[in-house]
Amino acid sequence: MMSVPSRVVIDELRELIVAAAPDPAQAAPVRTCGADEPLDGIIPFSSVIVLGTVIAVEDHYGITVRRPDLARVLEGGVTLSRLATMVDELRR
Question: I need a surface site. Which of 17, 25, 61, 81 has the fewest CB within 10 A?
Answer without folding.
Answer: 25
